[in-house]
Amino acid sequence: MKLSKTALLALTTLLLVGGAAMVIAMTMGLPRQDPYVQAVLTLRGDSKRGKVIFENNCSACHGQLGKGEVGPNLEGVASRRTDEVLIHQVVSGKTPPMPRFELSDQQMADLLGHMKKL
Ligand code: HEC
After folding, report:
1. Number of domains in the chain
2. 24 and 45 fall within a common domain
3. What is the pLDDT of residues 90-118, one digit of tens each?
4. Distance, CA of 92 to CA of 90 (rounded, Å)
5. CA angle 34, 48, 110 (to 5 degrees)
6. Which range marks the domain in which residue 41 is found?
7. How many C-beta atoms lie closer than 10 Å to residue 30's C-beta?
8. Closest CA relative to residue 3, chosen from 12, 47, 66
9. Which helix (H) or strand (E) holds 52?
10. Contact call for residues 103 and 90 (beta carbons, < 8 A)
11. C-alpha to C-alpha distance for 110 and 58, rounded to whole angstroms
């Protein structure tokens, strides 16, 4: 089969646009579809264990009670942000100086449970 120049051009454009769209979707992180977020949200968080995780990892910046130091006050943060956004905030490292945390699914669920009580 012999492709015309126009058909070839149209095909190339289609491939390029498709590829670019895929890269954009991937780099945006689409938190809702993230398998890690999904896994965390299926678990029941233990806020008591979450409190310990918070005191060890977060209190230096957000204060022991989450009222804020270097980092913002987190009181009532769960009423302002969705679970997906909160999880993303902790594991993405997208807002320096807040570091990117590597927590197991269960640890993240526990921490989320604690954040909901702040
Ligand atoms: C090195 C200091 C630092 C540490 C440690 C830190 N944070 Fe942060 N955090 C920040 C800063 C600064 C911001 C504001 C980021 C921005 O939006 O520019 C922030 C923002 C947040 C927000 C978003 C608040 C909002 O109103 O949207 C949440 C939630 C949060 N941190 C939770 C945590 C948790 C949970 C931990 C521990 C696992 C943690 N942070 C550890 C500095 C820190």
Report:
1. 2
2. no
3. 999 999 999 999 999 999 999 999 999 99
4. 6
5. 5
6. 34-115
7. 12
8. 12
9. helix 47-57
10. yes
11. 14
Q: Is 63 in the pocket of ligand 1 (CB under 6 A)?
A: no
Same-domain check for residues 18 and 43: no
Q: Is the beta carbon of 101 within 6 A of some atom in ligand 1?
A: yes
Q: Encode pLDDT of 53-102 as tens digits.
A: 999 999 999 999 999 999 999 999 999 999 999 999 999 999 999 999 99
The three-class DSSP label of residue 34 is coil
Q: Look up tokens 């498709």; give the residue.
A: 18
Nearest CA to ligand 1 atom 13: 71
Q: Report yes or no on whether pTM surpasses 0.85.
A: no
What spacing in Å lies between the alpha carbon of 68 and ligand 1's midpoint? 9
What is the distance between the terminal CA atoms of the chain, rounded to a whole angstrom? 67
